[in-house]
Amino acid sequence: MNKPQYYVGIDVASATFTSAVGSMGEKWQISVKPAQFANEYDSFARYLKWLQDHGVKPENSVICMEATGVYNELLAHFLVANQYAVAIEPPLKVKRAFKPEGHKSDPVDSCQIGEYAYRFWDELSLWAPRQEILEQIKTLLTTREQFVVDKTGHQNSLKALQRKMIRTSLAEEMHEKAIGELKTHIRQIETEIQRLIDQDPDLRSKVALLISIPGVGMLLAAHMLIAFQSAANPMSPKSLAAFIGICPYEDSSGTSLRHTPTSRHYGPPGLRKLLYLAALSLRTHNFQFKSYFLRKVQEGKPKQLVINNIANKLLKIMVAVVRTKTQFIANYRSVNPGLLKTALTKS
Predict the structure, then answer these.
(1) Among 27-31, 249-253, 309-313, which range has the highest average pLDDT?
(2) pLDDT interval class at 205 (50, 70, 90)
């Protein structure tokens, strides 16, 4: 991306958003004072005209906003549809770029977001909307996770009630009914996810490749489809592991700080949980991974670290089968091209 002439900062709230425009010069400067607009689709055309009236066009600008969940989603889609370059940055990253002093308001925040884009424009990752079917799958996976949490809560409450000296049948019946309804909803969601995958040839092909791997089921494969679209470099296992939050990092400084390398545990929690469960399954039921686990534990490695290593190995296999478009081959061994050439020459 060439260096833009204008840097637009947008501070998004639930009902409104505030935007300011800065321009490139000897130093950062606000060229258009902050203005507030309603955060609804009918107001976006007025905002687009406001940008164009001040010379802010798709070819000479970049628009930056903080990630605010669903609040900025409609606006981001609208701007990208009108050919604008949009960057959605983590709020904490923007906050840490400025000293914690001065007033805090929507106009101030919009100016700071614009200045952030100016200072770090070469590090911005331009946002692109997900494929519609993937957005639906992501919503269904999130809803399913919420229902699973609710079901577990009802199950725990029911067990507690059943252990009381004085039983209350109505309360127990309500929990049992809620558990049954949630199980039905979860099955319906899983059926719908499978239907959405089946209707798209590319997604269906990727899921077929992924579930050919031991320990990988439909839900884990569906989560991986979302990760492939979200990670900065999805075909790099290391980058993908960092995105998911299972990549151990060193934590040391001078002589006063010596922590065991650990993953940072941020990223999609649903995918991280399913990878962990898949690693546990491989440790128990897969001969190669079980042997690896026992060998590393005998060497003195912590069990949790070895399980995390298995999850990373599984991630590498998933990336490999998708990249090569080849189903998993049990007992596969890669061949060094140099050694293969030597063997063919000798024969």
Answers:
(1) 309-313
(2) very high
Task: Give the Cα separation of 255 and 269 in Å (integer).
Answer: 33
The most confident of the ranges 140-154, 255-269, 321-335 is 140-154
Q: Looking at residue 229, what is its pLDDT?
A: 85
Beta strands in 86-169 (DSSP E): 86-89
Q: Is-contact 284 290, C-beta < 8 A? A: yes
Residue type, 214: P
C-alpha to C-alpha distance for 78 and 88, rounded to whole angstroms: 14
Which token pair is 223?
Answer: 């989560």
Locate 26 and state its tokens: 């000897």
Indicate the SS3 state at residue 274: helix
Q: Which amino acid is at 266?
A: Y
Residue 24 backbone dihedrals phi, psi, to 5 degrees: -80, 130
Q: What residue spans of 35-131 are helical by DSSP H?
A: 41-53, 73-81, 91-95, 106-119
| Sheet strands (E) in the chain | 6-12, 16-23, 29-38, 61-66, 86-89, 249-253, 257-262
